[in-house]
Amino acid sequence: MACLQLLLPLMVSCVAASERSPRQLPACQVVQMDVFCSDLSLRSAPVDLPHGVRMLDLSLNQVQNLSQETLAYQNGFHHLNLRANKIHFIQPGLFKDMTDLRVLDLSRNNLNVFAHAKINIGPLTAVESLDLSNNGLYTGMSDYFLADSPSLMDLSLNGNSITKIAHNTFGGSSLLRRISLHNNVILEIEDGAFEFLNNLTELDLSKNSITCITDFNLCNLKVLNLSKNSVEFFHSATSVVFYKLTHLDLSENKMLYFPLLPRSNMIEHIDVSRNHLQSVNVTGGLEKRTQVYFYYLKHLDMSYNQLKSIPESFFHCMRFLEVLNVSNNCINSFSITNPGLLQTVKIINLSFNSLQSLTFGENTLPSLEKLFLQGNDLTTLDHGIFQRLPSIKHLHLQQNDLEICSSENEPQDCVSFTSIPTLQFLNLSENYLRILPANAFANTSLKLLDLSLNPGLEMDKDSLSGLEQTLIHLLLKENNISSLNTDLSSLKSLKHIDLSTNQLTNIPVWSKDSSIESLNLQNNNLVTLKYSSMLALEHSLKTLYMGSNPLSCCSNLDFLQMVQRSAVVVPDIETVTCVHEEYSEPVNIEKVTLEMCHISGVQNYVIAVVVIVLVLLIAMALLVRYCQARKRKHIRRFTA
Ligand SMILES: *[C@@H]1O[C@H](CO)[C@@H](O)[C@H](O)[C@H]1NC(C)=O
Ligand SMILES: *[C@@H]1O[C@H](CO)[C@@H](O)[C@H](O)[C@H]1NC(C)=O
Ligand SMILES: *[C@@H]1O[C@H](CO)[C@@H](O)[C@H](O)[C@H]1NC(C)=O
Ligand SMILES: *[C@@H]1O[C@H](CO)[C@@H](O)[C@H](O)[C@H]1NC(C)=O
Ligand SMILES: *[C@@H]1O[C@H](CO)[C@@H](O)[C@H](O)[C@H]1NC(C)=O
Ligand SMILES: *[C@@H]1O[C@H](CO)[C@@H](O)[C@H](O)[C@H]1NC(C)=O
Ligand SMILES: *[C@@H]1O[C@H](CO)[C@@H](O)[C@H](O)[C@H]1NC(C)=O
Ligand SMILES: *[C@@H]1O[C@H](CO)[C@@H](O)[C@H](O)[C@H]1NC(C)=O
Ligand SMILES: *[C@@H]1O[C@H](CO)[C@@H](O)[C@H](O)[C@H]1NC(C)=O
Questions:
Q1: Which of 41, 442, 578, 594 is the most buried (most CB within 10 A)?
Q2: How many angstroms is it from 285 CA to the middle of ligand 4?
């Protein structure tokens, strides 16, 4: 009942709003000659619309019948936004005399009803940009809007139900530059549908049902998006014409073979990720055609396919490639040995394959900066492989099974990270690493080192030497370390250290000039924190994680006060608890008071004695000063 009472006034006010007469000028905003009337439950533009309006925003209203009356008999608009109304009728010829109207947004209306009545909208004399997206239009219906649109350059038909593009669909709009047909159900494109559109540079056919592209011949097109279709093969027409295509998106299709691209091309980006590629061949049989050269190709994405290998020769025709993504395939061996290959490549993503062997020849990959190798089966690598990459900065080797060479032994079944002067970032987490030998990273410029999730890792006390000036981030979490014998205090640049989820009983020793800003000690075995170590950090530490440790309440009082008085943030303070013998449950660290830790027995007595002695001393000192003061007063009075 109460509910209904509440609802009723609400409903009444809604009805009132929707039937508001345009005469009572609603709260439109007028900024110079632009009028904003969005979301005001209007059925038409306000009648007292000032003259000479250039831009009218009537989006999100209740317009149903778009006529001269609805637009307050004005013709001078440059920009009309009628998105998200209920338009199902447009007065034929309405836009004929709007010779300044460049932008017309009719998206999210019910224009399928209008088209169903087979009425023509009439000439779109000056319209350059038209949005007809989400109008329930199906095949052929766009004709009623486009038949006479001589100035149209930019058209969106996204989110309709078009199944076929006929050869004459765009016959009335020959200046089109960009067509968006994203999210329709296009199965068929008739020959000649786009060919005569000489100015067409961008075609978005993503999210449709296209199964193949044969004889692709749109040589002026620059961007072609075929993502999220069911394309099985893509063949360009055999011709010697120069194609201007730069971006081809074929991601999320069913391609079995690499697309066959035009011989004369300037393609820069090819995306064939998430397809069914099993090889980089362009057809099933022997390659009939001569090699296509990709002189402009910079970015090639073939991730999420079923590639088992990539022959080195595949890269012969890609001289200027910069980014290669072949992650998430089934590649078990990758090798680049020819020094002329991939001279400009900066990023190679080979993550999540089943790599067991990786080979880089001398003087190959001179520009490679980032190499992603995580999630493979790498156990043995040529121990000097990374020293051969003169520009390498980032190495992602997590989730493999590597061992690190020690400098004394003959390198065998291990990989070396010393003497890679450019190396800044190294992730070796989850590698079943057992031993971290001395000088493991000497002569690198490592800023970040992740050694987490290598339980049982034995770190030599000099394992991090050489990183004193460079290392900023060190991650050692989940390593089952019970005591850290590596001296971290010499790492002068170290700012962030993660020691969470280990078995530490002591915190590492730091010197006063440490620059640690964040320290994670969560989930260890810390009972008593060495106060001098914590004090050394006080001036630099900003963030401290301490939760899930069996801290003792009363032996860390100094530390507690430090947390209270300094600017250290303890984000997990809710879980920082300590053990107190008088309490059965752990006590939250914020609730610990000095009184709780009243020291008992002999200690209490000692303190009492100390306090009494102190009080006596102070009293004596005061007495002495008082006497002296009186004496001075005497003297002063005497001389005065
Ligand atoms: C739309 O409005 C015009 C003029 O106001 C009127 O002639 C026409 O019948 C209306 N059409 C519909 C479908 O309501
Ligand atoms: C459209 O293409 C024609 C040639 O077919 C060219 O003359 C004209 O300048 C182009 N127009 C625009 C706006 O690019
Ligand atoms: C192609 O369309 C998809 C949306 O379906 C979009 O995510 C992607 O960025 C587009 N690709 C290009 C090259 O514009
Ligand atoms: C790819 O083509 C080569 C010949 O160029 C052929 O030997 C090989 O079997 C082909 N691979 C597949 C998977 O079709
Ligand atoms: C492949 O890697 C490149 C470069 O690292 C990246 O830009 C792209 O998004 C990746 N592709 C996918 C599908 O994640
Ligand atoms: C490597 O590729 C995977 C997808 O295949 C992507 O998620 C990841 O972001 C890529 N790495 C980089 C650094 O681009
Ligand atoms: C290292 O790799 C692991 C994945 O195994 C990831 O969780 C972690 O965030 C990476 N470290 C850094 C610093 O990016
Ligand atoms: C680091 O480089 C110096 C000078 O090049 C060299 O003497 C030293 O042996 C190198 N250290 C290691 C561990 O490779
Ligand atoms: C962690 O170290 C303890 C000894 O400190 C050992 O008993 C335990 O097995 C180790 N756990 C793992 C996962 O290595």
A1: 578
A2: 7
- Which tokens in the block code for residue 196? 């005569």
Confirm whether 606 is domain-assigned. no
Q: What is the pLDDT of residues 602-631, one digit of tens each?
A: 455 555 556 666 767 777 777 777 767 665
Nearest CA to ligand 1 atom 13: 89
Q: Tell me the CA–centroid distance for residue 519 and ligand 9, in Å.
A: 23
Distance of CA 218 to the CA centre of its chain: 34
- Tens digits of residue pLDDT in 553-603: 888 888 887 777 767 889 998 889 988 888 888 888 888 888 888 755 445
Element (H, E) at 618: helix 601-639
Counting atoms of ligand 6 from 1, which one is nearest the CA of 304? 5
d(CA 120, CA 140): 12
Asked if residue 383 is part of any domain, the answer here is: no
Q: Where are the alpha helices (DSSP H) in 58-211?
A: 111-116, 143-146
Cα-to-centroid distance, 427 and ligand 7 (Å): 6
Mean pLDDT (the chain) is 88
The atom number, within ligand 8, closest to the CA of 439 reads 13
Q: Decide if pLDDT at 326 tops 90.
A: yes
Q: Which of 189, 207, 225 is the last residue of a domain?
A: 207
- Who's near 49: CB < 8 A, 6+ residues apart? 35, 56, 72, 74
Q: Tell me whether residue 526 is in a domain.
A: yes
Q: Which atom of ligand 7 is nearest the CA belonging to 430?
A: 5
Atom of ligand 3 nearest to the CA of 223: 13
Which residue CA neighbors atom 14 of ligand 5 most closely? 303
What residue's CA is closest to ligand 8, atom 1? Answer: 443
Number of domains the chain contains: 2
**pTM for the structure as a whole:** 0.86
- Pocket of ligand 2, candidates 129, 151, 154, 175: which has the most ligand atoms within 8 Å of its Cβ, to mutate? 175
Instruction: Tell whether 231 is covered by a domain.
Output: no
The Cα–Cα gap between 317 and 258 comes to: 14
Domain that holds residue 160: 25-207
Dihedral angle of Cα 184, 188, 189, 190, to the nearest 10 degrees: -140
Q: For position 196, which CATH number holds?
A: 3.80.10.10
Q: 281 C-alpha to center of ligand 6: Å?
A: 24
